UniProtKB/TrEMBL annotation, chain A:
Gene: gatA
Protein name per Swiss-Prot or TrEMBL: Glutamyl-tRNA(Gln) amidotransferase subunit A
Coiled coil: none
Pfam assignment, any one: Amidase
Domain of life: Bacteria
Organism in which the protein naturally occurs: Primorskyibacter flagellatus
Active site per the UniProt annotation: K78 (charge relay system), S158 (charge relay system), S182 (acyl-ester intermediate)
EC numbers for this chain: 6.3.5.7
An example Gene Ontology molecular-function term: ATP binding
Keyword Transcription regulation belongs to the record: no
Protein family membership: Belongs to the amidase family. GatA subfamily.
UniProtKB/TrEMBL annotation, chain B:
Cross-referenced InterPro entries: Asp/Glu-ADT_sf_sub_c, GatC
Enzyme Commission code(s) on record: 6.3.5.-
Protein name as annotated: Aspartyl/glutamyl-tRNA(Asn/Gln) amidotransferase subunit C
Gene Ontology molecular function: ATP binding; glutaminyl-tRNA synthase (glutamine-hydrolyzing) activity
HAMAP family listed in its UniProt record: GatC (MF_00122)
Amino acid sequence: MSELTKLTIAAARDALRKGEVTSVELTEACLAAIDKADALNAFVHKTPEIARERAAAADERIKAGDAPDMCGIPVGIKDLFCTEGVPSQAASGILRGFVPQYESTVSQNLIDAGAVMLGKLNMDEFAMGSSNETSVYGNAVNPWRRGNDDTALTPGGSSGGSAAAVAADLCLAATGTDTGGSIRQPAAFTGITGIKPTYGRCSRWGVVAFASSLDQAGPMTKDVRDSAIMLRAMCSHDPKDSTSADLPVPDFEAALTGDIKGKTIGIPKEYRMDGMPEEIDALWTQGKEMLRDAGAKIVDISLPHTKYALPAYYVIAPAEASSNLARYDGVRYGHRAKLSQGDGITEMYEKTRAEGFGKEVQRRVMVGTYVLSAGFYDAYYNRARRVRTLIKRDFDDAFAAGVDAILTPATPSSAFGLGEMAEADPVQMYLNDVFTVTVNLAGLPGIAVPTGLDRQGLPLGLQLIGRPWEEGDLLNTAYALEKAAGFVAKPAKWW
Amino acid sequence: MSIDEGTAAKVAKLARIKVDPADLPVLAQEFNTILGFIEQLNEVDVEGVEPMVSVTPMRLKRREDVVTDGDQQGKVLSNAPDAREGFFAVPKVVE
């Protein structure tokens, strides 16, 4: 039975349609794997009753011949998605006990497609973090280890639980969200595939907001084909999200021909960072050669404002967060502090937010408050938004010059140890997103593909960045890279 | 630009987050680290560049001005820390 959890979505879909397996069997296998994997702390709210009910319904649908691709596929849902009747607290203490009375559009789309929710997945609090260490549930743990060394490693963040769960075969796939790299960095740290689509592809309705102009949902899966299948099911135009794109959602899987002959792949010189580990550089060179061997034309390009992406992000994202998180005031939902005699409404706000928000969230809300405050708005917030315009222009220029996709490393290192960054200043942790954050600022699709192992035996990934709305083409290039890299390594089971 | 403890306290107040006075020096130092990082933006020539409003140029949709939802008082109040008689309850706001 345990082998069932290792299936890809595509393999499970085909087996389900042929009647070789039922969704109930797949789901039971996943539930059993989840129960044995508490050491990974990936699933933080398990929903076995919902899973069994939806699996049985999916089997009926499959039998009736009305089965979309995701029908009967057991998946995990990041805790950032509001799920009706199931605790959804964005890994924050301030939403302890919050049970949404509605379903996010993305998770509803998955329900409509027949997918089976196994439970909610760990993450950094309000998706603010790169190591899953800011979660109120405690750290999610990477199933990968450095050889025989039993140091617990981070699965990355913020979608750390999603990454750990997929890499450890607790589910066939999971949802993630990505504001600065939160799908792609954890995917790279755990040897799985994750795509952040173009801003506007997935509805943000019902996804707890962090930075609304950057947030996008996307799938985290075992391979590129699965990302194509699941992304299609997650996307839709949604009148409830005014920034959701009113564009048809193509069949992304149909784009996977593996033929990239004549495509132009840009290699941005600014992504060669000082002090970048040699292994990352070597991996990048290999990726370039693989794509060239597959028939693509490799060209050097320049994205001159790359250096300013992280500083711009750390103005824009906290500014939006300070506004979005103003709603957590102890009045309508979530935690409210116990008040002392004589405390008024201001004390209620201040105590509630001090108790409910973790340190990193407090820090970002306050930085955001500062950069938006009178006298600094122009110097910080407006300047950052101008720089953002320039960052997007860099990409526009590259695409206008004929580049189809851009190849970069996904992360500046492999997974690091949990706690290893505890003494570092916050900026050191922010540097994890150095290769991914530009993509959010420019609203582009980006995908992380596992392409190798470092000498400690940990997975490393490369990132491909595509033209807006051309996820199909991007996925196809990723598919060619995946085929050439032939990454099949799995973490040795210790949990 | 350097943030002192007084400024840190003011920012905490604006953000409605209670901070223990003993924690202000560390907080001010963290702000300075982050703002020092952000200062790099001053190197960029942004003369004549418009601040980005939306990554995809789009006109916000308009919908018909009709009631689409309502009569869900129970659901709206179901997560309230303190709900009484069909309302959210809070400490006294007006003296």
